[in-house]
Amino acid sequence: MKNDLHIRTNFSASAAKDCDWRKVLKKCQDEKLDRISITDFDTCIFHVINKLVDTSCIFSGKIVTGMECDVCENGITFELLAYNFEPFKTLSWSYKTYGTLEDRQTKIKNLLIEKAKQHKIKIDCKQKFNGKVDFAHKYVYECMLKYKENKKFFEKHNIQNLSDFYRLSTKQKAFPLYVNMSKVFPSVKKVVNFIHSVGGFVVLAQPCKSGNNSNLDFILKKVLECGIDGIEVYHPSHSIEDIKFLLKFSKEHNLIVTGGSNFNGKPENNEMGIKNIDKAEKEILNGAKL
Fold it and tell me: Which CATH number does the domain housing residue 67 bear?
């Protein structure tokens, strides 16, 4: 069985703009995936569409309801993956909790620009911002790149790309453009409690990806306290050593193990299916609750 439980469409700001859900489902079919989950950031609108429209003519495999939920604890931003929930109630909750994609990205963009101005960092905000399609951190990062004066700032903080900028501004409190995302995102407990109330379960997403390592002990302790159900062990950012550690941790705490590609249609995340899996471990990817 070939699964992928971490896929995004252009309902997520971080996905490619032409990553329409129909194209994504067709790619899943072409890749001969047996079971998938569309896990857009902070919304499950695709899964409401999937209840109203017959998508089996595009993708013949099983579609598990899913959503990637941004959370913030102690000023540290990370992600959870919710699965198998009731989509209509969850969509309503997601709008109340996160707002629309446009609301969310516009608010984050304004917070970042405010921080830049406080620290007298040159930034060109003349370019039009559309919160429906533009990723706030990408917009601000590119606005800063326009000024040669900011080269020393990027060098000082070892910022070589957008990923570095996002990691620092959401996880490192000493970084000048750090924004406490608790102003935008809910707590772990709030997400876990709601998803459990609508019949779903919650998995910690990509815990060993770059930026989480220094906070990993805190994150693992927090999610266990809040009643997390599983760990996304298999993820492109995880090394073999990471996988072995997370498998051991999951077994010790009786947690479900899942995996996904983090597909978002962009060149760096354009492959589907799960990589770096020992054949002996493949069967556990089904997850007891899927």
Answer: 3.20.20.140
Residue 155 sits in the same domain as residue 209: no
pTM: 0.87
pLDDT tens digit string along 21-44? 999 999 999 999 999 999 999 999
DSSP string, the chain: --EEEEE--TTSTTS-TT--HHHHHHHHHHTT-SEEEE--BT--HHHHHHHHS--TTT--SEEE-EEEEEEEETTEEEEEEEES--HHHHHHHHHHHH--HHHHHHHHHHHHHHHHHHTT------S---TTT--HHHHHHHHHHT-GGGHHHHHHTT--SHHHHHHHHHH-TTSTT---GGGTS--HHHHHHHHHHTT-EEEE--TTSTTTGGGHHHHHHHHHHTT--EEEEE-TT--HHHHHHHHHHHHHTT-EEEE---B-SSGGG---S--S--GGGGGGGG-TT-
- Comparing 25-34, 170-179, 280-289, which segment has the lowest mean pLDDT? 280-289
| Same domain flag for 89 and 210 | yes
